[in-house]
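Incident review: delayed structure delivery

Summary: a single-chain prediction request sat in the queue longer than the usual turnaround. Root cause was a stuck worker, restarted by the on-call engineer. No data loss occurred. The affected request and its eventual output are reproduced below so the record is complete for anyone auditing the incident later.

Affected input:
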Amino acid sequence: MKYHTNYILVSLVVIVSYFSIHSTALAQSGTSEQDYIERAKVLEVLSQAQKIIPGTNTQANYQTLKAQVLDGPDSGKTVTVQNDYLNLTQGEEFYLTHVIDPLDGIDAYNVSQPYRLPTVLFFVGLFVLAVIVFGGKQGVRGLLSLMVSIAAIFYVLLPGILNGYSPILLSVVISSFIVTMGSYITHGFNRTTTAAVLGMIITICFTGALAYWAVHATQLSGYTTEESTYLNFDTAGKIDFVGLLLGGIMIGLLGILYDAAIGQAVAVEELRAAAEHFSRGQVYKRALRIGKEHIGALVNTLAIAYVGASLPLLLLLHFSNSSLSITLNQEIFSTEIVRTVVGSIGLVLAVPITTLIAVYILFKWPVERLAKSSSH
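Output delivered after worker restart:
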């Protein structure tokens, strides 16, 4: 079993490394931008007025600011910034967009985003502290696993997609890598963890195939937001947005899939240790009974999480004058329905698959050896 575990790890690391190296190499070729973002500080509010946004009845606050650029190519420079985005006061820091017109070379400075990084880092630090204090050693392992997952997404998945690799292939590979490395880092190298990992990888493959079928059957294009349109233009149409949608479904499933698979593997281990006289069939049925209760809670959690992230869509649905069938048929709504349903099906499949694998693996060893292995 140890040999097979090492084989899985080595294979995934080699595949991820391959994508990482080629993505980095391809990323060297890029086009020069005519605009860039810099951090600045408000020195003075030169003017401020309420104006009607053209074409609407909505009022917005318009400001003309005198600001000093704090970093970037214009560091130290004092500029005049137009602001119709948020209300800024003297001394506040923000990000501005410096746009250079390629025709006449005229510079324009506009407010882009508030400078919220210090506050974000404060809450990140608070989260890390809470995990370490209350989670102890296991919490530290969880944080390390999270760092590996984020690194795999930002340094392999995203560059790979931007450079033309198949989003669905990359997503399946990265998802398998994340659940494998994350599980072993957090829970250690033992048979219970291996059972959970195998269950997750098989579930990921099944869910990927189902997502592929669902997205193509419903004729979803992947263009549901302004970001998709901008990204398509910025990359000259190189990205497969249908594949990107499929990849998003896969990545979005990982966290809750991990919870279900680990829970089922541990349930089988505990039942095996507590009732040595139980047959494989008895342990499977009792563990599946636990899993069914878990499914009810997790499916609800997954659906509510998607609903929470889609509140603007739901408000749009509420105020729409179209019929319910017409509204739900729109791609922006159909996408969220497919995402939720496919993710939930993957979660449901994880329970019997992982339970079956765990029973097979854990029953191959005496209880004494199983307990000794799981303690490391």
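Verification: The chain is about 65% helix and 15% strand.
Action items: add queue-age alerting; document worker restart procedure.
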